[in-house]
Write a structure and sequence with these properties.
CATH topology: Aminopeptidase
CATH class: Alpha Beta
Number of strands: 5
Number of domains: 1
Strand order of the largest sheet: 1-2-3-4-5
CATH superfamily: Gcn5-related N-acetyltransferase (GNAT)
Oligomer: single chain
Helix content: 25-40%
Number of helices: 2
Structural class: alpha+beta
C-alpha cells in the first residue's frame, strides 16, 4: 500500500522519505482535483520516487471518486503511461 498522505491544509500530497518529503501540490474545485506541481528532493531524483508518489496520488483520488486535471507535466505523463487512470482524467 502507498505511504502517500494527503495534507489538505497545505493542498498537497506527501510521500515522507526519512528526512525528506516528495510532494504533489493540488487545487480542489468541487469533485475535481487539479494536480499543479510535483517536487522530489534533488538527491532522490532518478530513484522512482516521483512514480511512487504519482501512483499513491492517483490511487487516493480514484478511491475518492475524484476527477483529475493533470496540469503538472510529470503527473500528466505518468497518467498517459498508466491507462488504468485514464478514466479519472478530465479533458
Amino acid at each position: 500500500m502507498s505511504d502517500v498522505v494527503d495534507n489538505p491544509a497545505a493542498q498537497r500530497f506527501e510521500l515522507p522519505l526519512g528526512g525528506e518529503t516528495a510532494v504533489a501540490y493540488y487545487r480542489v474545485d468541487g469533485d475535481q482535483v487539479a494536480l499543479t506541481h510535483t517536487e522530489v528532493p534533488k538527491e532522490l531524483s532518478g530513484q522512482g520516487i516521483g512514480s511512487k508518489l504519482a501512483e499513491g496520488v492517483f490511487e487516493t483520488l480514484r478511491n475518492r471518486g475524484s476527477k483529475v486535471d493533470a496540469r503538472c507535466p510529470f503527473m500528466a505523463a505518468y497518467a498517459s503511461r498508466h491507462p488504468e487512470y485514464a478514466a479519472l482524467l478530465v479533458d
